[in-house]
Write a structure and sequence with these properties.
This protein has 520 residues and is α+β, with helices and mostly antiparallel strands. The chain contains twelve helices and 27 strands. The strands form seven sheets. Strands 1, 2, 3, 4, 11 and 12 form a six-stranded mixed beta sheet that branches.
Length: 520
């Protein structure tokens, strides 16, 4: 018996759902928990623990416990984002053989898809326990702002986990599916997705069974982890004032304060005040234990994290500008992600858009439910009229030109499939070849963007600069695969290249890393 499930593979937490005869069902583990921390703990004996049990290891064995792997997935080791992550994690991040970022735990190098596969397998097993039979197929969600490499890395993680990934679905589209906003009049909705590690906002146009992403924008380093860090830093400063002891270099103490900050954040979602008691953070001059005991209010918490909330609105401004819409033209605002629970965040979003956001579905579960609905549509023998989902290119595509600039041929937020061409001239006298370097990103400088691939069109006719013309053509198909063609308009010669996203693993490596079926 085959059943397709929907998995929200989150930075901080993950969730799995299925559409049954009576509608969507969110699966819980044996303890009744409907969301699972996306944390993987590796034991020296080779044992691997995932979820709530693994999360307890973050304070006691941080070097062998990998959290927030989603921030690393599909990234090159040399990227600025990876450099920032290295400075804030206890586990070791190293360069892989294909220039990808990998983690090193207990002396063993692991690719990020392998780590994420452990989380996916954990969610798969929870679904199998709930259904009573094996699960092989899944729709898995990613942030709309994920680039092609990150999407392929997520697919590779699914393969390693023993899952056939039916589709990689954008999280905001999944949320819109879960809310069922395709019923009725044409409308524009904004999906405000503040999760554990990333923030995305997407503007969608809905018209009956059409779900079209009009624009998306995101901040890949803004999420619940950053809110926890801000609260933890505030507690660090309070401890310093109380005891005149600086714990900045004490990693264990900082992790304890960060964990306390997270507990306060959760508690203040429901309560107006919370008391925090964090013992044994340091030793005093006479060897006595020093801790921190304070009372924190919801208003104080809102002031601590206000700069982070304001950063989300800068991203909202960008998405609305890309969509050429005003705030007043947004009909509905959906809240997605656990960080949208605090009342002060919901109030701030309501003030920004001028309307109260929709919150009737659990923000931790809405994306998984939408993924399950799409999985059901793709596998049902007699599906009802299914929605047409139109995706966009999350980032601009272009080529490197003279001076190291990036000339964009396909701008971000262009609906795919799509194609574009442009004619370029030689930059030097008697130039014999043209090197075509394809980049993805928004920077004017090519070196600040991600290199997707390159090739050479040679044997050009010797001529003064500017006289030989070369036409560059880009095409992106419905699967997001990029085709690039360079044609010498003088002689008719051409070279082409097919760019398929890479996670840093070859397909042979992906297959070799698949978990043993006996493990299930």
């Amino acid at each position: 018996m085959s059943t397709a499930i929907g998995i929200d593979l989150g930075t901080s937490n993950s969730c799995v759902a299925w559409v049954g005869p009576n509608g969507p069902v969110v699966f819980a583990d044996e303890e009744g928990q409907r969301t699972q921390p996306s944390v993987v703990a590796y034991g020296h004996s080779g044992a691997v623990v995932v979820g709530h049990r693994a999360r307890r290891n973050l304070v006691y064995a941080p070097e062998s416990t990998v959290a927030s792997a989603k921030r690393l997935i599909g990234r090159r080791f040399t990227s600025d984002t990876v450099k920032r992550i290295i400075s804030s994690t206890a586990y070791k991040i190293v360069e892989g053989p294909n220039a990808d970022a990998r983690v090193e735990v207990n002396g063993k190098m692991l690719s990020v898809p392998e780590v994420s596969a452990q989380v996916l397998r954990h969610m798969k097993k929870i679904a199998e326990q709930g259904l009573g039979h094996e699960v092989r197929q899944a729709v898995i969600t990613v942030p709309a702002y994920f680039n092609d490499h990150q999407r392929q890395a997520t697919r590779d993680a699914a393969t390693i986990a023993g899952l056939d990934c039916l589709r990689i679905l954008n999280e905001p589209t999944a949320a819109a599916l879960a809310y069922g906003f395709n019923k009725g009049k044409r409308q524009h909705i904004a999906v405000y997705d503040l999760g554990g590690g990333t923030f995305d906002v997407s503007i969608l146009r809905l018209d009956d069974d059409l779900f079209e992403v009009v624009a998306t924008s995101g901040d890949t380093f803004l999420g619940g982890d950053d809110f926890d860090a801000a609260i933890g830093d505030h507690l660090l400063e309070l401890f310093k004032r109380a005891h005149n002891v600086d714990l900045t270099a004490n990693r264990t103490a900082r992790l304890k304060l960060r964990a306390a900050g997270e507990r306060a954040k959760i508690a203040l979602t429901e309560a107006e005040h919370v008391e925090l008691d964090v013992p044994n953070l340091a030793r005093g001059p006479r060897g006595e234990e020093l801790g921190l005991t304070i009372k924190l209010s919801r208003d104080e918490l809102a002031r601590i994290v206000r700069p982070l909330i304001q950063r989300t609105f800068l991203t909202c401004d960008d998405a609305l500008s890309q969509a050429r819409l005003t705030r007043g033209q947004i009909d509905h605002v959906l809240m997605v992600g656990g960080m949208t629970r605090p009342p002060f965040i919901r109030d701030a979003v309501g003030d920004y858009f001028g309307k109260a956001p929709f919150t009737r579905i659990n923000p931790d579960e809405v994306v998984a439910i939408g993924a399950a609905i799409q999985a059901h549509t793709l596998t049902s023998d007699n599906p009802q009229a299914s929605a047409l989902l139109l995706d966009v290119t999350p980032q601009s595509l272009g080529i490197r030109t003279v001076g190291g600039f990036c000339e964009v041929l396909i701008p971000r937020n262009t609906t795919i499939p799509t194609e574009a061409t442009k004619v370029f001239s030689t930059a030097h006298d008697n130039q014999g070849e043209v090197r075509v370097e394809v980049y993805q990103g928004e920077s004017r400088m090519a070196s600040d963007n991600e290199l997707l691939g390159q090739f050479v069109l040679d044997h050009l006719r010797p001529a003064p600069r500017g006289q030989v013309k070369v036409r560059i053509g880009f095409e992106i198909d419905s699967d997001g695969i990029v085709h690039v063609v360079a044609e010498d308009l003088d002689r008719g010669a051409h070279r082409d290249m097919r760019i398929e996203a890479s996670s840093g693993l070859t397909q042979d490596e992906v297959q070799s890393k698949r978990f043993d079926e006996l493990d299930f």
